[in-house]
Amino acid sequence: MKDFAKDFPILAQKVYGKRLVYLDNAATTQKPDTVIDTISDFYRSDNSNIHRGVHYLSEVSSERYEEARKKVSDFIGARNSSEVTFTSGTTGSINQVARSLGPSLRGNEVLVTGVEHHSNIVPWQLAGAKVKAIPMDDDCNLLIDSMEITNKTKLIAIAHASNVLGCVNEIKEITKIAKDHDIPVLVDAAQSIQHLPLDVKDIGCDFLAFSGHKMYASTGVGVLYTSDRFSDIMPAIGGGGMIDRVSLDKTTYLDPPLRFEAGTPDIAGAISISAAIDYMQKIGMDKIKNHEHDVYSYSRDKLLEMDNVMVYGNTNEMCGAVSFNLDKIHHYDTGLILDKIGVAVRTGHHCAQPLMRSLGIEGTVRASFALYNTKEDVDMLVEGIEKVEMMYK
Amino acid sequence: MNDVIQDEIIEEFDGLEWFDKYSLLISFGKKLKPMDEEFKIEENSISGCQSKVWVRSYNKDGKLSFDLDSDAMITKGIIALVAKVVNDRYPQEILNADLYFIDKIGLKSNLSPARSNGLESIINRIKEVASNEVNLNS
What we know:
The structure holds 2 protein chains of 2 kinds. By secondary structure, chain A is an alpha/beta fold. Chain A has helices at 33-46, 56-75, 90-100, 102-105, 122-126, 171-180, 200-203, 267-283, 285-305, 331-340, 353-359, 375-392; strands spanning 14-15, 18-19, 21-22, 84-87, 109-113, 130-134, 153-159, 185-188, 207-211, 222-226, 243-246, 251-253, 309-311, 321-326, 343-344, 346-348, 364-368. In chain A, strand 1 (14-15) and strand 2 form a beta hairpin. Chain B has one domain: Sufe protein. Chain: A (Alpha-Beta Complex). Chain B has a 3-stranded antiparallel sheet.
């Protein structure tokens, strides 16, 4: 297996004199040289505003932006690149759907899971919907048979993979049921797009949201896939670049995706997503999945072997994040000490307070992986945990 | 303002590696008298994302003291030091106090407002209590 960490310049550094073991990838991934170079080259040679200019550079940047859209569209298996909108990130994408569907959600219900990130809860509440969770067992397996769909259920919005536990939800089972009831499904793919091969046609969802920065691209940019079936929904944000005609009495809008992209978008960001996809595809999504699966399983096995470590969640398929706590040691203390060993983890509720409540805990220590992590990184984590335990004896 | 207690703390931490610093904080945390459960209520808590902290204050002969507790041991160690510095002082003294030991012992990063529930909100709460006392008596 190639040492992918070599492609990521930031990982070569030492922190507190120790090798940096970066296990906070569910928060954000590091960027490979190719992505960094793409962003810098864009500003060095191609930068211009898009879609409006008559001049050479505007043509170049518009073309690169639209190529990025096509790249994303192919990457997620969309039928048409018009189904791909660039947004500010997963949160922006979900809020956009919430505002676009607003009137139909008000006073009705949105079905989510018990492992959702707050960004797949709050936008629906802001839109005036009641948020209900599909029941799950103690291991966080969804109890799909107990899913209650009523005539008030107007949307099902589910995480593909949990940002806290790494549990992968059976989204295809859910889209099948949703189809029978003619209810649209939104999939929050923020924690799966970088780990698993994914195809929106195969999943059968109507909306899919993810962020660039969690898939090796830059921050502040993300994607919303909207099935052509919803191409007539109203834009959530108005402004420049998305209109057909404007008068003081009435405005008509461009067709998707441009009608959803008011104002100047993050052009370099969108292009960075394209470069990140190139990087991942060069390795191969299946290969990434298998390598990460090895490291992930190894981490769970190692943690489960430890006497005083409690690991949360256990579903058939898992990826990305593993959450745990040490007996009688606060997650914050654990995180602070691991940091000084050079192991970067995240601690707290991970923006998933409903999940914390159902687990009966305040927070966890979360280690989360990317394609550059290795079993040696896991060994460093385990060594760190042993050190933490020793300090508390 | 230099004070003996802060200078003693600085001396105790001087030259220690991170692990020894944390070990020392953990030992201070363990020694801090825990707050009775009945007082660990919302009203006394400084809520945040990382660890819970509770603050109570009392006035004895015009001097202020604080009971502090946390569910995280390192946080508890840090607040034990803060308590040591500010306790049994006149409100105006606390209000004027410059807690320079925090920077000197290398815990300044715990002060950053970005660390939710960082030391800063605890110190703000203490100063707020002191300020209320000063206003009450003026």
